[in-house]
């Protein structure tokens, strides 16, 4: 018995030692790989490696790392030259983001197949040559590919269809030839293949039909609907007749006679068709004149079917609420003062007329205005937000704000695609998200209680998505979301969480006496709940903490807690934690949930730091994101497939064996 125990302990010590050696070795491998990389491409010695700090995470260009492993390497505008060695890069196997943008690197793009965690590749504005790197098509986590501004040639491979998460593909200003593959990923939001030598018809797949001429310009051999250039049909083959002596001339006469008959028939058909078209045009004009007498009121009638603000995001079927929620005709208003549809960045392949004729379905109504699902005649779908106040702020301030928001591009933001300004109308056009909102995912169609259980791994993933998107917004000085809540988080094609309705609070009229609704009020920081108080980045952090508590407890901040306990969600969580501490039951080993509670505790601690009543005590979103990533990485290391721990902190608390515990 003693020998068996000694042997077990010895094996345990050996395993721990091996793991420790591997961990240290992996850290050293990344450092050695970076030094080898510097030696091969930094002939001008612009990279200060190794720096004074021994911590790899402090090295210039290492933007993100965990336990000494590099996860984001950004080496841009450093005049790096030479070829990238695939053997060196393969040692950095934890890389998520790799950027060598705007250097002088040359040769072939190396084999990246060993970088299985890679999500974003930025190799643009260098001197790379050769074919499109085939290894990229095998990296199934890749979302962003930016290879523009090089000398790449050959075909754009159809194997890109394997990348089901593809979000951005920028290949412009290269030497690519051949056709464009029929990309069909619904996740594709940004595409540019301009200024190459591509040819053939642009596929009319749903993923490609939405992009306009700017995405394909500079390729004279291309044709298709997106660039308004018809594809030429191959010349018809003229019938040939055998030159039989004595019979060739009669055949020609017969052929000429047949042509005359055909011309007469076709001429008669065209004439009759022209008369029919003229009649139809006259009838349509008469009908249109009648409709214009009633036209400007259709949108206002449509608002009768609006849903509640809690159920509504900027898109999403599950956000549909209200009394009828059905189709309600197109967008209409008086022609007087009709403005212009302004696209943000590269425009989509539709015009103002297409949007005006689109059928509109009410998705809901919020503090900013009403939201619609607009289906154009081509079948293309967008989400349109009709702002409540079309007179505030002034045109110049409104345009400046739209240009600022239109420049924001991030995988965790719903992009603003276009805006419209007229005398009495202001419209914002966004991508349509058919998977609905985070509110619907957590709570279903109800506005209180009974939400779907989310596993703690899902909570961590959602938290990281939201913190990443919000952190990107906060990189712009003074810019805030201003209205963060679960109904303003939409689910993308890969069920990634994307923020919407960001940066719009400045469009509210400060002289308005309208009180914020309960669905908004309880997400707001205490210092911003009074009318007219502008949102701050610290207030965004508070709202993020409330949203995180909503995930962890399954409670709606604006209804469940107020009705059941007369308290907002941060105060309720504080009271439960204090009760746990006083009773000591949270440390009871008999609960059997120590592991799951520990995993959820990290998220709970982050949320509680965010909802501090003192704004100065709240962490920045950059700090929040680092804490979440550390917690997620730690959870991935410690988790296993047999883990069936509760998905919510409230589930863990509820399972603790104490009868006097507050009912949840």
Descriptive notes:
The protein has a seven-stranded mixed sheet with strand order 1-2-4-6-8-10-12. It has a seven-stranded parallel sheet with strand order 3-5-7-9-11-13-14, with no helix packed on it. Strands 15-17-18-19-21-20-16 form a seven-stranded antiparallel sheet. Helix 8 packs antiparallel against helix 10. The model is unreliable at 11-25, 236-255, 291-330, 332-337, 585-593, 640-646 and 652-664 (pLDDT under 50). The protein is 33% helix and 15% strand. By secondary structure, it is of the alpha/beta class. Strand 1 and strand 2 form a beta hairpin. The protein has three domains: 26-227, Leucine-rich repeat, LRR (right-handed beta-alpha superhelix), CATH 3.80.10; 298-434, 2-Layer Sandwich (Phosphorylase Kinase, domain 1); 436-508 and 516-664, Transferase(Phosphotransferase) domain 1 (Transferase(Phosphotransferase), domain 1), CATH 1.10.510.10. It has 15 helices and 23 strands.
Quick synopsis:
Helices cover 33% and strands 15% of the residues. The strands form 4 sheets. It has a 7-stranded mixed β-sheet. A 7-stranded parallel β-sheet has the order 3-5-7-9-11-13-14, with no helix packed on it. The C terminus is likely disordered.
């Amino acid at each position: 018995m003693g020998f068996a125990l000694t042997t077990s302990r010895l094996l345990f010590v050996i395993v721990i030692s091996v793991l420790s050696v591997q961990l240290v070795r992996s850290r050293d491998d990344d450092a050695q790989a970076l030094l080898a990389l510097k030696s091969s491409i930094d002939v001008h010695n612009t990279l200060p490696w190794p720096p004074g700090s021994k911590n790899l995470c402090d090295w210039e260009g290492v933007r993100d790392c965990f336990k000494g492993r590099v996860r984001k390497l950004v080496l841009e505008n450093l005049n790096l030259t030479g070829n990238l060695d695939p053997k060196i890069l393969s040692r950095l196997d934890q890389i998520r983001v790799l950027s060598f943008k705007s250097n002088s690197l040359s040769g072939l793009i190396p084999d990246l197949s060993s970088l299985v965690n890679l999500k974003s590749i930025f190799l643009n504005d260098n001197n790379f040559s050769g074919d499109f790197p085939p290894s990229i098509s095998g990296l199934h986590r890749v979302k962003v590919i930016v290879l523009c501004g090089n000398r790449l040639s050959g075909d754009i491979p159809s194997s890109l269809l394997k990348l089901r998460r593809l979000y951005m593909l920028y290949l412009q200003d290269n030497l690519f030839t051949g056709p464009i593959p029929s990309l069909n990923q619904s996740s594709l939001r940004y595409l540019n293949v301009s200024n190459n030598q591509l040819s053939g018809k642009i596929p009319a797949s749903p993923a490609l039909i939405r992009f306009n001429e700017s995405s394909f310009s500079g390729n004279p051999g291309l044709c298709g609907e997106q660039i308004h250039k018809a594809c030429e049909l191959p010349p018809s083959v003229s019938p040939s007749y055998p030159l039989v002596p004595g019979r060739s001339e009669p055949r020609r006469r017969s052929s000429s006679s047949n042509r005359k008959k055909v011309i007469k028939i076709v001429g008669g058909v065209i004439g009759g068709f022209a008369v029919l078209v003229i009649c139809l045009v006259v009838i349509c004009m008469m009908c249109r004149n009648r409709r214009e007498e009633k036209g400007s009121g259709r949108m206002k009638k449509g608002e009768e079917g609006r849903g509640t603000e809690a159920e509504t995001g900027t898109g999403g079927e599950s956000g549909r609420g209200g009394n009828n929620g059905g189709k309600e005709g197109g967008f209409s208003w008086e022609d007087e003062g009709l403005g212009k549809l302004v696209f943000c960045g590269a425009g989509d392949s539709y015009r103002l007329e297409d949007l005006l004729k689109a059928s509109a379905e009410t998705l809901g109504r919020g503090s900013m205005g009403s939201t619609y699902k607009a289906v154009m005649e081509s079948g293309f779908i967008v989400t349109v937000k009709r702002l409540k106040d079309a007179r505030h702020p002034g045109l110049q301030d409104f345009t400046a704000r739209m240009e600022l928001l239109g420049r924001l591009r991030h995988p965790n933001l719903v992009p603003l695609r276009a805006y419209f300004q007229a005398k009495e109308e202001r419209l914002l056009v966004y991508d349509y998200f058919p998977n609905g909102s985070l509110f619907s995912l957590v709570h279903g169609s109800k506005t209180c209680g009974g939400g779907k259980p989310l596993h703690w791994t899902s909570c961590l993933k959602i938290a990281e998505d939201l913190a990443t998107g919000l952190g990107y917004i906060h990189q712009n000085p003074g810019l805030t979301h201003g209205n963060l809540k679960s109904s303003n988080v939409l689910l993308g094609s890969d069920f990634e969480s994307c923020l919407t309705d960001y940066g719009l609070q400045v469009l509210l009229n400060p002289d308005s006496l309208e009180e914020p609704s309960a669905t908004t009020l309880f997400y707001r920081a205490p210092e911003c709940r009074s009318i007219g108080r502008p949102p701050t980045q610290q207030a965004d952090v508070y709202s993020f903490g409330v949203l995180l508590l909503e995930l962890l407890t399954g409670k709606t901040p604006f209804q469940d807690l107020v009705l059941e306990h007369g308290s907002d969600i941060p105060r309720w969580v504080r009271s439960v934690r204090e009760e746990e501490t006083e009773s000591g039951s949270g440390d009871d080993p008999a609960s059997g949930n120590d592991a799951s509670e520990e995993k959820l505790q990290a998220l709970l601690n982050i949320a509680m730091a965010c909802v501090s009543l003192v704004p100065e005590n709240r962490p920045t979103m950059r700090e929040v994101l680092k804490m979440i990533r550390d917690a997620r990485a730690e959870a991935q290391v410690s988790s296993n497939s047999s883990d069936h721990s509760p998905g919510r902190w409230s589930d863990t608390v509820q399972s603790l064996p104490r009868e006097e515990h507050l009912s949840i």
